[in-house]
Description:
Layout: E1 2-9, E2 12-19, H1 24-32, E3 50-53, E4 56-59, E5 72-74, H2 87-95, H3 104-117, H4 123-129, H5 141-158
Parallel strand pairs: 1-5
Antiparallel strand pairs: 1-2, 3-4, 3-5
Helix pairs in contact: 2-5
Amino acid sequence: MKVLLSCRINAEEHAVLVDARDTLLELLRERIGLTGSKEGCGNGNCGSCTVLLDGAPVNACLVLALEVAGRDIVTIEGLARAGELHPIQSALVEAGGTQCGFCTPGIVLAAKALLAANSSPSEDDIRQAIAGNLCRCTGYGKIVDAIATAATRMREAEA
Length: 159
């Protein structure tokens, strides 16, 4: 059964026909064409599909599309502004924390949620925030360092 779903994705209103069984990940990738979120495991263990739902990180493979009616979703495609990377993205690139890039969108969005709630996170805070995101290439040292660097830059830019 198809249902007309209305939601806000990356600050744009969308009205899309979805199947009642569609996940948020399927909505984003197949119906809207936003392919930054990846399906790594399909069961919520890898974090590659992480998006922000009303500001909170969620595994898009575990959320039914119908659950996001009237809600605000941010994907990796929604972070760069005027062709300029978000500070988290820039810091990851500079630190070498993006080797294959498969996990990067989920990590960036988990970090964004963390920094929105805590502008001066400790290393433990950062590690806890990205604990649901598996990286098979870089290890986590460069990723953690990059998020700490981004936090500093974002605080300085606000001041």
